[in-house]
Amino acid sequence: MTRPPAAAGAAGPGAYVLGVDSGGSGLRVALGRVELPGPLSTTLCAEPVRTGPGGIDAGHLLDQLLPAARELLVRASASTTGGAPAGEVAALAIGAAGMATLGDRLRSELPGAVGDALGVRRLALAADAVTAYAGAVGQRPGAVVAGGTGMIALGTDLTEWHRADGWGHLLGDSGGGAWIGRAGLDAAMRAHDGRRGGSPALLDRVRAVFGPAEALPGLLYPRSDRPAVLASFAPEVAACAGADPVAADILRQAAGHIAEAAAAVCPRSAGTEVEDGEGGEVALTGGLFKMGEPLIAPLREELARLLPGARVTSAAGDPLTGALRIARALAAGDLRLPLHPTMLFVPQEHGSGQRGGTTVCDEPRTG
């Protein structure tokens, strides 16, 4: 995978850029300018974009994105004098959950549609892990761990992407919210049965949150949002960890899984040379890490063991910030993050000299 060359005819000062973050909580849109950090304004479309047999529904995304973008442009034009003419958008970057595996319709339908509707000169379509990376680290080499209900680690040396986990709660997401919640519920049910490894403290929390423990299977198994329900119990595990050794051990195991994923993708562990004494940057982003020290303290210990010298940081920005940063870099002809056909795709006709996704390897390296 190669670094994309600079775009020809970069947008000048005053041009607008749009960043989009599409996830389980809805569609967020931010409007900015090429030369200014941060957004001018943002808006939220609370309905999540639908996913069907053909993947992410491009039409449904457009139905929400276009009115939101026009509203932001009108609002910006009304609040400024001079600068870019109303409606002039130099670049748009869309980050979407499921883009890597379910984004075929977005990649085939969106370039022409947004070009016709908004006059966008440059477009980037990214997996949400990539926008999380751009928000957390920017365009520097490093790694990001995005933790919420699930867990994924993504790293780059600015030559190629390296991914670990993010395979969903049945196949992985080890150390994520659903993993922690499920482990906590298992410990509670062990205590209910009198089996080894049980936690009376977590059993008390199950009863307080869900009701009788024996009713839990009937509450959980029919749910289509089981990962979110499992993850909702993770804060209870963290709350018990200070006094309950079983809960504390669950978080230590989670920290180990997270650190292993980070080590698998961090540029140094992927064989990239780093400066003396530098172990690379590992940024933590997502609601999982709001659990604080019960998880962060063992995670720092594990990262220090697996990645000596690594700088562990909090994310500088969220995935919406990352989408806006990608759009700004694309507009300015300075996109340094590596292109990829499913992770970070820039259609050739929209790239103004950048190489599109078909010129790079089919899958990000894992491990």
Topology of helices and strands:
Elements: E1 16-23, E2 26-33, E3 41-45, E4 51-52, E5 55-56, H1 58-78, E6 89-96, H2 99-102, H3 104-118, E7 122-127, H4 128-136, E8 142-147, E9 151-156, E10 161-165, H5 177-193, H6 200-210, H7 216-220, H8 226-231, H9 234-240, H10 245-265, E11 281-285, H11 293-306, E12 311-314, H12 319-332, E13 344-345, E14 365-366
Parallel strand pairs: 1-6, 6-7, 8-11, 10-14, 11-12
Antiparallel strand pairs: 1-2, 2-3, 4-5, 7-13, 8-9, 9-10
Helix pairs in contact: 1-3, 4-12, 5-6, 5-9, 5-10, 10-11
Fold and architecture overview:
- By secondary structure, the chain is an alpha/beta fold.
- Helix content is 39%, strand content 19%.
- The strands form 3 sheets. The protein has a 6-stranded mixed sheet. A 6-stranded mixed sheet has the order 12-11-8-9-10-14, with helices on both faces.
- β9 (151-156) and β10 (161-165) form a beta hairpin.
- The chain is globular.
- The two termini are 16 Å apart.
Q: Which structural category fits the helices and strands?
A: alpha/beta
Give the tally of β-strands: 14
* Poorly predicted runs of 5 or more residues: 1-8, 269-277, 350-363
Question: Approximately how much helix is present in the residues?
Answer: 25-40%
Question: Main attributes?
Answer:
globular, disordered N terminus, 367 residues, alpha/beta, six-stranded mixed beta sheet
In short:
The protein contains twelve helices and 14 strands.
